[in-house]
Amino acid sequence: MADFDDDYEDFVDTSIPARSEYELNAGIQDRSNQVRGFVSSGRFAEAVAKALEDPPAGRDAQGAKDKNLQVVMEALAAPRGTDIPVIVKQLAPYQLDTLMKFVYRGMAYPEAFNPSVLLTWHEKVTEVTGLGSIVRVLTDRQTV
Fold first, then answer.
1. Cα(56)–Cα(137) distance, rounded to whole angstroms?
2. Which keywords are on file for this protein (predicted)?
3. pTM, whole model, 2 decimals?
4. What is the three-state SS of the chain?
5. CA angle centred on 130, ends 114 and 104, rounded to 5°
6. Which pLDDT tens digit goes with each residue over 1-33?
7. Phi/psi-derived region of residue 53, left when phi > 0, alpha when psi is between -120 and 50, beta in every other case
8. Segment 91-103, tens digit of pLDDT
9. Is residue 13 in a domain?
10. Where residue 71 sits, what CATH number does that domain have?
11. In-domain check, residue 1
12. Within a domain: 11
């Protein structure tokens, strides 16, 4: 009987070349600058959408994932609680799943990121997606 991981490798798209650490960091820095610009001009929905774009993936990208987490958390912390439902409703389903991944990742560091803000995002995303987003995030092998 074949091992699950061996079977899983057959379904992974290896045609996309892995990006170097330099490329990942350059993309994150550019995205960070754009997110800060959106936040400073009060365009929170655009800041969140931009922060969720193209998250680094792969086991070898942990440093880039950590930097990207900071960018996303900056975007999530900026809007008032009353703005969050409006922002969530503007996001596409795949963006909501990515957002939920970052919410869970941020919750792993309560000393660094405000858990009450993350719980508000979690609640509002769950209202829109139901439990499906939670299940997809917890079973997805691609982490952020």
1. 16
2. Cytoplasm, Cytoskeleton
3. 0.86
4. CCCHHHHHHCCCCCCCCCCCHHHHHHHHHHHHHHHHHHHHCCCHHHHHHHHCCCCCCCHHHHHHHHHHHHHHHHHHHCCCCCCHHHHHHHCCHHHHHHHHHHHHHHHCCCCCCCHHHHHHHHHHHHHHHCHHHHHHHHHCCCCC
5. 30
6. 444 344 434 444 444 567 888 999 999 999 999
7. beta
8. 999 999 999 999 9
9. no
10. 1.25.40.190
11. no
12. no
Nearest Cα to Cα of residue 19 among 60, 70, 67: 60
* Token pair 């957002």 in the structure block, residue: 99
- Residue in the structure block whose two tokens are 């389903």: 93
Structural domains in the chain (count): 1
Residues, the chain: 144
Q: CA–CA separation, 76 vs 118, rounded Å?
A: 8
Domain membership flag for residue 12:
no
**What percent of the chain has a predicted confidence (pLDDT) above 90?**
79
